[in-house]
């Protein structure tokens, strides 16, 4: 499936085409994001994602706010006052498609599943809107889609980025990556993307951009087992509404059940002793 | 107007986590599920010790508390008409899936146990067999709800993951003992009163330990939407436990029982409401410790 199109993202780089069975993902290089929001628009159009409340948020050029059921890409605008004026940091956020995905683990209906591309997708027609995935996600990606009348089958159910599951199946790259005019959003096989990201980081460091760093490129800064979407950032993760060290709560489930078993044993012993002592 | 970025933490003060959306129905379900589950344990152990009067009431309480549970859970769903999708999979990684099956199984055997109690004869024999199974399922029914909350990224729940099951188990035991003490003549209700006091002490002790473990995050139990119920839970449970130890006179047991039942319900509201407060407080990126 040859699906990467256009020129390579940086001079000297070549496009790497995924083959069937590859784990694919996004590398979002915020250092070349121009904040055009073509990704937000392309995603909305391709996936028929409805409009959200239109509000003035007083957060620079960002009136999308954050990822939600109705915003599967979100461009952050971080204004920084500097000696020579105001600088913007811009970054296109998206579902991280965690390798250990808490949303998928806790989903009680099987609506959330892992695809053959190693991505995480919600089946809107299976989800019954229990809401468990919403607080499970360590990145706050998921919400329930509310108040949309023209797609009744998808209201009140959890929704998020599918990495354009239909396009991947059809041999196309995700709509956001294809629409990105600066190749800030790069799609491809994850191992090749990670190597490219490291080369890009080295270049930026050589050019004196000391603050540049990779986020979620490997497992060193997270417990989500690696991510299907990782980033090159120009400031601390928290500035981008990212957790400093995201966890997958569900990886500790065994300990929780053991605690519950211990609590149950204590109660059984207590109630049993009460019954025995009350014998008459 | 210039957008301001310096005064607020993180990205314009936006929380990293999304708030849990569970409605008050869920707190009521946690309470009733715990009451039903430990009532089954009380019914089973009372039967073993030969206290049939107490056992009979405990089984009626277990069944009565169970009945509203499925409707409460279904009402909380975004798409209630698709509730049956929960019954199409059994998923060990999802406490909600496991809980759904525990509740389903518990409902079946508890109905048989209650029917045996009510109808006698051949049903009584069947009921005795079902009682063992119901008691066995009652324990996870009363505690899985704590695991369900702990298994999220919400700091006030996840950091308390080893304490919450004890809080819920204690609270459930207090409520089950209290309900049985209210309905049982005092000469037969001593085990229920003892269980109620034991559960209340476990609940209070585990809550205290949980707040110590939570450190700064414990503030979500002292301010915001959870503060009221948390305060009420402590006061009601403490008073109920003290009153319950004063002896077997029926009016006293009824008053103590009512206090403990209310305290148990308040405890579930406190824990459920602490979640959204905690999620809202994650703007600085330091969501969850390891």
From TrEMBL, chain A:
GO cellular component: cell envelope
Binding residue positions for [4Fe-4S] cluster 4: 107, 127, 130, 133
Source lineage: Bacteria, Bacillati, Candidatus Dormiibacterota, Candidatus Dormibacteria, Candidatus Dormibacterales
Record InterPro entries: 4Fe4S_Fe-S-bd (IPR017896), 4Fe4S_Fe_S_CS (IPR017900), FDH_Electron_Transfer_Unit (IPR051555), Formate_DH_Fe-S_su (IPR014603)
Annotated [4Fe-4S] cluster 2 binding sites: 43, 161, 164, 176
Transmembrane segments: 255-276
Name of the featured protein: 4Fe-4S dicluster domain-containing protein
Gene3D superfamilies for this protein: 3.30.70.20
Domain 4Fe-4S ferredoxin-type: from-to ranges: 24-54, 86-117, 118-147
Binding sites annotated in the UniProt record for [4Fe-4S] cluster 3: 95, 98, 103, 137
GO molecular function: 4 iron, 4 sulfur cluster binding; metal ion binding
Binding site for [4Fe-4S] cluster 1: 33, 36, 39, 180
Localization, UniProt: Cell envelope
Keywords for this protein: 4Fe-4S, Iron, Iron-sulfur, Membrane, Metal-binding, Repeat, Transmembrane, Transmembrane helix
Binding note for cofactor: Binds 4 [4Fe-4S] clusters per subunit.
Main location: other
Cofactor: [4Fe-4S] cluster
Organism per entry: Candidatus Dormiibacter inghamiae
One of the protein's GO biological processes: cellular respiration
UniProtKB/TrEMBL annotation, chain B:
Entry membrane topology: Multi-pass membrane protein
InterPro entries xrefs: Electron_transfer_protein (IPR052049), NrfD-like (IPR005614)
One Gene Ontology term, aspect cellular component: plasma membrane
Pfam entry (one): NrfD
Keywords: Cell membrane, Membrane, Transmembrane, Transmembrane helix
Localisation: Cell membrane
Transmembrane segments: 26-46, 58-78, 98-120, 132-150, 162-182
Annotated family: Belongs to the NrfD family.
Protein name (database record): Polysulfide reductase NrfD
Organism listed in the record: Candidatus Dormiibacter inghamiae
